[in-house]
Amino acid sequence: MADMASMLDVSVWRGADEGRFVSYPVPRRENQTVLDVVTYVQRRLDATLAYRFSCRVGMCGSCAMTVNGVARWTCRTHVGRVARDGRLRIAPLRNMPVIKDLSVDMAEFFAKAARAKGAFRPTADRTADFAVIAPDSPRRRRADAAIECIGCGVCYASCDVVTWNPDYLGPAALNRAWTLVNDERDGGNRERLAAVAGDAGCHACHSHQSCMERCPKHLNPTESIAGLKRATVLAALTGKL
Amino acid sequence: MGPFGLAGGSRDHPAYWAFAVHRLSGLLLVLFLPAHFYVLSRAIQGAAALDAVLAWTEGPLVKAAEVGLIILLAAHLTGGLRLLAVEFLPWRDWQKTLIAVTAGASLLIGLGFLINVA
Amino acid sequence: MSARAETLLWLAQRVSAMVLAVVVAVPIGTIIYAVQGGLSAQEIIGRVQGNTGWLAFYGVFVAAVAVHGPIGLRTILREMTPVPARLIDVAAAAFAVLLAWTGWQAAYGLYGFGGA
Q: What is the pLDDT of residue B102?
C-alpha cells in the first residue's frame, strides 16, 4: 500500500553550531525509519552529509538525533509516527557542540560521567572470594533499575537544566553514580557523594522528568537523582560530606 | 542561529508544565510578598490607616488580583507537595496522577476564595 | 560555595517548604473564611492584637518565607540570567533580610497594635 508517488519534506541541519536547514525530497515508504531517511539523503542526494549510526537495530544508541524537536533514536523511530503531515525536521542532539551536520561532540558528556565518579571502585582483590549479593536486596534492586544505561545522550540532550547550567553533570552521569552508590562492593562513596552534591550536581535537578520521558530504555534518572539528593543530605547531616 | 530556536517539542509534557507553573508562581509570589508585608505593617499607623488601605483593596481590580494570587499560592503549594513526594517518597507512575490532582486542588482553592469574594 | 553548603541550602529549601505548607494552609483557609463578610481593620486587629499565639504563628511564617523565597530566587537568577554567582548570593541574602524585616514589622505591628 506504499504510495510511491508520495514524498517526504525533510529538513536536515547542515553546518556546525552555525548553519541552516536544507530541504531534501525523500520518497516515502512503508516501514521507514528516520535513520532510513537520513541514509537515503546521504547515499542518493548529498554525500557530504555527516551522521552517526552503528547497529541500526536499537541497541547501541549511536543514531540519536533531534527529530521534530524531540531527541530520539532514529533507527527506532518510524516515520509514520513522527511525520504527521509528511514533514521531518532532523537536527543534531541538543546541549552538545556540533562537529558537523548531525554529529555532535560527546566529550563533555563523558567527561561529566567521570566527574560524577561514575567508575567502580573495588574493595576486594583477586584473591578474595566472590561477593554474594542477593538480587532482590533493596540496594541491588535500586541499582538494577538504573543500570541499563548505554550512554546514548538522549536524556542529556533533553534536559533543560543542562542547557541553563553548563556545569550541571546531567541525568546520565548522575544516574550512573546512583547505581554505584547502591553497589555494596564499591568503596568510593565518600568522594562520589561529594562529587554529585551541589549546584552542579543532583541539587540542580528540578524534576522536569524530560529525561524519563525521552529515555529509549525507559530508565528514570529523576528517581535516581532524587535518591542522590536524599543520600547527600544524609551525608551532610552526619558529617560524611 | 543554531538548530533549535525555542526548542519546542521536547518540553511538551505535563511534568514540564508543572515545573513552569511552579517556577512562575514562585517568582510572582516572592516578588509580591514585600508589598503584602508593607500593607500589613501600615497597621502600626493605626486602624484608620489600615482601613484606608483595606478600602482600596475592595476595588474590583484588586479583588481580581487577589483571586489570582490565591490561585498562584494554591498552585505553588500543591505543586511543591508533589515535588516533595517525588524527591522523598519512592513513587513512580503515581506522579502523573499527582500532577492532575494538584492542579485540580489549586483550582478548587482559588474558586473557594472567588465564591466568598463575589 | 562548597558542595556541603549547597547541599544544606537545598535541605533548608525543602524543610522551609514543608513548614510553609502547614503554616500557609491555615491563612488560606482563614482568608476564605474571613473574607466572607468583607474585611475591616477592626476585625483583623481584633483577631490578632495581643494574641501571642498568632504572633508566634506569623513569626514562623515570616522566618520560613525568608528562607524559602530567596533560595528559590537564587536558583532562578543563576539559571536564567547572566548575573555572576557571587552577586546573586549577596542579592539573595539581602532579599532574605528584607523579607524577614518587613514581615516581622507587619506581624509585630498587628500584634502590638497600640493607639487608635
A: 76
Instruction: List, for residues A170-205, the tens digit of each pLDDT value.
Output: 999 999 999 999 999 999 999 999 999 988 999 999
List the subunits that have 3+ CB pairs under 8 angstroms with A.
Answer: B, C
Among chain C residues, CA nearest to A206: C75
Closest Cβ opposite residue A69 in set B9, B86, B92: B9
* Chain C neighbors of B41, CB-CB under 8 A: 102, 105-106, 109
User: Beta-carbon neighbour count of residue C12 at 10 Å?
Assistant: 14
Q: Which residue of C has its CA nearest to B75?
A: C21
Q: Has residue B106 been placed in a domain? A: yes
Side-chain half-sphere CA neighbours of A40 within 13 A: 16
Looking at the complex, report in whole angstroms how far the Cα of residue A168 sits from the nearest Cα belonging to chain B: 18
pLDDT score at B79: 87
- pTM of the predicted model as reported, rounded to 2 decimal places: 0.88
Residue A190 pLDDT: 94
What is the fold, at CATH topology level, of the domain defined by C3-111? 3 helical TM bundles of succinate and fumarate reductases (1.20.1300)
What pLDDT is stored for residue B92 in this prediction?
A: 64
| Exposed e or buried b per residue across C22-55, where buried means at least 16 C-beta atoms within 10 angstroms of its C-beta | ebbeeebeebbeeeeeebebeebbeebbeeeeeb
